[in-house]
Amino acid sequence: MKRFGIAIGAMAMILLALPASSPADLSLDVSPAKYELQVLPGKTETIPIIVRNTGDAQVHIQTSLSDFTVGRDGNYQFLASGKAQYSMGTWVSVNPREFDLDPQTFMQVRFTINVPAGVTGEYSTLVFFTTRPSRKPGGGLAIAERVASKLYEIAPDTARFAGEIDDVSTKADDSGQRYLVAFHNTGNAHVYLSGRVEIKQGSQIVERVLIPKDQLVERNGKRLIEMTGKKLPAGSYNAVALVDYGGPNLIAGQTTFTVR
Length: 260
What we know:
Elements: E1 12-14, E2 28-31, E3 34-37, E4 44-53, E5 59-70, E6 76-80, E7 92-95, E8 98-101, E9 105-114, E10 122-131, E11 134-135, E12 142-154, E13 163-173, E14 176-185, E15 191-201, E16 204-217, E17 222-229, E18 235-244, E19 251-259
């Protein structure tokens, strides 16, 4: 099985007031958007992250660390550094933390990760780069940009990929038959989900509904996957969810339902 990876790039643009902005107003870029390290416990490693100012004015940038969780609906929630259960935020030091960046230039920001002895599995944090609020020409409203890079540290040879389907359910609505698959990441590293739900009537498959690709589930996290199939004629059916989380085998769950 293939384990999918996806980066979070420019995570957010913070509007302190709501100007008439366009994509051209965004001037901050970060590379890479995701860094996956494998540092031995008890060791230290320093990595670079490049921040670019692609705009036409100097910006002042502040660097901060933030923990995060990803909810069952896939939305991010941000926490103070060190507050998440599997945070590596307190292991990280940043140099420089604050700097000016001229237009069309870049800065290499160094992150030193001190991995404690005895840790296993995966730990993570977010690095935010935030500009000082500034006013655009011709407008009186202040705007700030914020972009992020996600850091993962996996202790070598300790990653374990596992998952289970907690529940499969379905209900009809005006757009068709909705299917909900509740997945629990029981491993110790993040995974990306793909797969399908097969709708059967007796031994015949009447529809295959694909799970949207790259559904992120963090370590020990849960995700409710929703998808919609076609409207079904009256009858009894079996919905079989087949989920690929990057492990050695697909996992399955099913439910029986009746359309009246």
